[in-house]
């Protein structure tokens, strides 16, 4: 009976397949999928870490967070950061990629060197820049003074702290995205650029009319990753400012983390976290829609 | 000088002038690259040099002079004090134990899983793969609250296992290895099937030996990610005896111990240097992996 035989064989193949994926299914199921589901259920409770339990409270946490000025502030901080970092860092990475994608001597040396901040841990980078910004002996003030600009307070100034944090993040990551852009540039056939040159297009025209459209997919990828990275920033506020001064650098992830693990308010914190997650998903979907629209 | 010779001279001068303009452009271009390089190097240089000067010399030089970057008195005293103040041997051991366990374990589990997704036709394959991939949009920063609860519920709170187990299978690693396996022609393993090989043998004897390069690349990425990991250990680990390097650094910086700047700078240097060495040795692999990840 051939059909039963093939049925048996399929069963056997299934079992072999499951034996290969079992460890991953167990780990991702227990440590990712289950916590992801739990995030949405525990947000409806008043779970407290000290008590170790909580009761169902309906939408209370969601209503409260909308009235919570610190949480709203943290969303503002997060989006200000993203709105600054994403365009500035992407532009720097793109321009540097175009410059570094020439056939000139020594460029690979510079590329290796530029990449160092990208492989340095964020904690180390944050500490280095906290020292750089030190108002009394930091190197930033040394540099400012040497060109005749007044000393600044950087991280302890309400006006400058967020920008200082953003600059640190860009300093760490621009070269990572430059590398991605360079590999995108390498995929553009030389003939297209040569043809444009023969037609008399100058460098700037070439960049806007050929390079940029050809890099559309890579740019979409870079913008999506950078946005995600900016929204989930935790180490810079934790290490450099503790969210201060006066909450001006208190990102949502940092604020929520403190609610959960310093104030033990796990229920409300989980509710906030799930809202941030939904925001991330919505932004990602919008970016994807916009990015792939003109491709068809 | 007759009109003719003058014209001839000007014709001869023309290519020379163009050459000069080109050379000037080159010089400007390379100077620009050097300036960018300085923005990358100077913060590292300043921190490294502060790490090998006595404490009374730190913060003494706030002008743009050689002494700001080169210690007047060279000392390893900061490193010695760091090992006295913190159990650095234990901290480095903890960091390496976790990073290496996760690296080796996740290479095996991720490539096993990737093999099944690329080579075995089992029931539910696409659904499970979709669930795994969808976990890519769920950053650990969002999940950390419920990951903490899950780890506690399993009785793994404050253990090495809590830092290792959840990361032994990652959607990214599975995706990365599957992309590679998909590029290996199936004729190879079909020939092996005719020779009576089963899936376990094909995976272990044929595909894994062919995957040395992607395994090395993924291994490096995972190791560096684990070395840098912060929000997970700072949340899940309480005991001083299980502290990892990045957490120890923030302790130094936030002055839970008295802020000893010399020790802080030595600590940052110590955390940066091993990764920098790995990067210099394997930079081709690392840069290439980032390029491929970006394109796919």
Helix residue percentage of chain A: over 70%
Q: What is the third-level CATH name, the topology of the largest domain in chain B?
A: MetI-like fold
How would you spell out the order of helices and strands of chain A?
A: HHHHHHHHHHHHHH
Overall pLDDT of chain B? 86
Structural class of chain B: mainly alpha
The CATH H-level homologous superfamily of the largest domain in chain B:
MetI-like
Kindly, what is the distance between the CA atoms of the first and last residues of chain A, rounded to a whole number of angstroms?
Answer: 50 Å
Radius of gyration of chain B: 27 Å
Which stretches of chain A of 5+ consecutive residues score pLDDT under 50? Answer: none
Largest sheet of chain B: none
Describe the structure.
The complex is a heterodimer of chains A (296) and B (296). By secondary structure, chain A is mainly α. Chain A has a single domain, classed as MetI-like (MetI-like fold, Orthogonal Bundle). Chain A has helices at residues 2-42, 60-66, 69-100, 107-114, 116-119, 122-132, 139-146, 161-186, 190-198, 203-214, 216-231, 235-241, 252-261, 266-293. In chain A, helix 3 runs antiparallel to helix 11 (216-231), helix 3 (69-100) packs across helix 13 (252-261) and helix 6 (122-132) packs across helix 8 (161-186). Chain A starts with a helix and ends with a helix. By secondary structure, chain B is mainly α. Chain B is flat. At the A-B interface, helix 1, helix 4, helix 5, helix 6 and helix 7 of A face helix 1, helix 4, helix 5, helix 6 and helix 10 of B.
């Amino acid at each position: 009976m051939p059909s039963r035989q093939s049925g048996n064989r399929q069963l056997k193949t299934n079992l072999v397949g499951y034996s290969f994926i079992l460890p991953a299914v167990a780990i991702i199921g227990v440590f990712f999928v289950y916590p992801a589901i739990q995030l949405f259920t525990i947000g409806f409770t008043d779970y407290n870490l000290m008590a170790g339990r909580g009761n169902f409270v309906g939408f209370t946490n969601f209503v409260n967070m909308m009235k919570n000025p610190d949480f709203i502030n943290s969303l503002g901080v997060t989006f200000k950061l993203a709105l600054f970092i994403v365009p500035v860092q992407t532009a720097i990475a793109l321009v540097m990629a175009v410059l570094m994608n020439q056939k000139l001597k020594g460029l690979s040396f510079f590329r290796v060197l530029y990449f160092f901040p990208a492989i340095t841990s964020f904690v180390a980078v944050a500490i280095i820049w906290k020292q750089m910004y030190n108002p009394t002996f930091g190197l930033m003030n040394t540099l400012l003074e040497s060109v005749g600009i007044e000393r600044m307070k950087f991280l302890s100034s309400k006006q400058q702290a967020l920008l200082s944090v953003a600059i640190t993040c860009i300093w760490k990551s621009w070269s990572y995205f430059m590398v991605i852009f360079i590999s995108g540039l390498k995929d553009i056939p030389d003939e297209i650029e040569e043809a444009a040159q023969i037609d008399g297009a100058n460098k700037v025209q070439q960049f806007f009319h050929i390079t940029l459209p050809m890099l559309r997919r890579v740019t979409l990828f870079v913008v999506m990753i950078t946005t995600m990275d900016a929204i989930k920033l935790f180490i810079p506020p934790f290490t450099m400012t503790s969210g201060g001064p006066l909450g001006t650098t208190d990102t949502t992830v940092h604020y929520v983390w403190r609610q959960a693990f310093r104030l033990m308010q796990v229920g409300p914190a989980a509710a906030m976290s799930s809202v941030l997650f939904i925001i991330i998903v919505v932004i990602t979907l919008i970016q994807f829609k916009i990015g792939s629209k003109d491709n068809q | 000088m007759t009109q003719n010779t003058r014209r001839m001279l000007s014709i001869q001068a023309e290519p020379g002038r163009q050459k000069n303009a080109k050379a000037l452009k080159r010089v400007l271009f390379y100077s620009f690259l050097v300036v960018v390089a300085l923005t990358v190097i100077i913060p590292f240089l300043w921190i490294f040099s502060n790490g090998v000067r006595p404490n009374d010399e730190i913060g003494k030089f706030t002008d743009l002079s050689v002494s700001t970057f080169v210690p007047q008195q060279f000392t390893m005293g900061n490193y010695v004090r760091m090992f006295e103040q913190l159990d650095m041997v234990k901290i480095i051991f903890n960091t390496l134990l976790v990073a290496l366990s996760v690296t080796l374990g996740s290479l095996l589990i991720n490539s096993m899983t990737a093999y099944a997704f690329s080579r075995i036709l089992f029931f539910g394959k696409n659904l499970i793969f979709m669930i795994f991939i969808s976990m890519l949009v769920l950053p650990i920063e969002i999940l950390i609250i419920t990951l903490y609860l899950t780890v506690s519920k399993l009785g793994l709170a404050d253990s090495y296992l809590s830092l290792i187990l959840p990361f032994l299978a990652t959607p990214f690693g599975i995706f990365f290895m599957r992309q590679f396996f998909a590029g290996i022609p199936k004729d190879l393993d079909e020939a092996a099937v005719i020779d009576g090989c089963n899936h376990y043998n094909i995976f272990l004897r044929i595909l894994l030996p062919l995957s040395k390069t992607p395994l090395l690349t993924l291994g490096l990425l995972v190791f560096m990610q684990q070395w840098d990991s912060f929000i997970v250990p700072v949340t899940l680990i309480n005991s001083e005896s299980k502290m990892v390097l990045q957490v120890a650094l923030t302790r130094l910086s936030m002055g839970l111990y008295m802020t000893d700047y010399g020790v802080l700078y030595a600590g940052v240097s110590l955390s940066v240097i091993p990764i920098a060495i790995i990067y210099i040795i394997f930079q081709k692999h690392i840069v290439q992996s980032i390029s491929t990840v970006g394109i796919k």
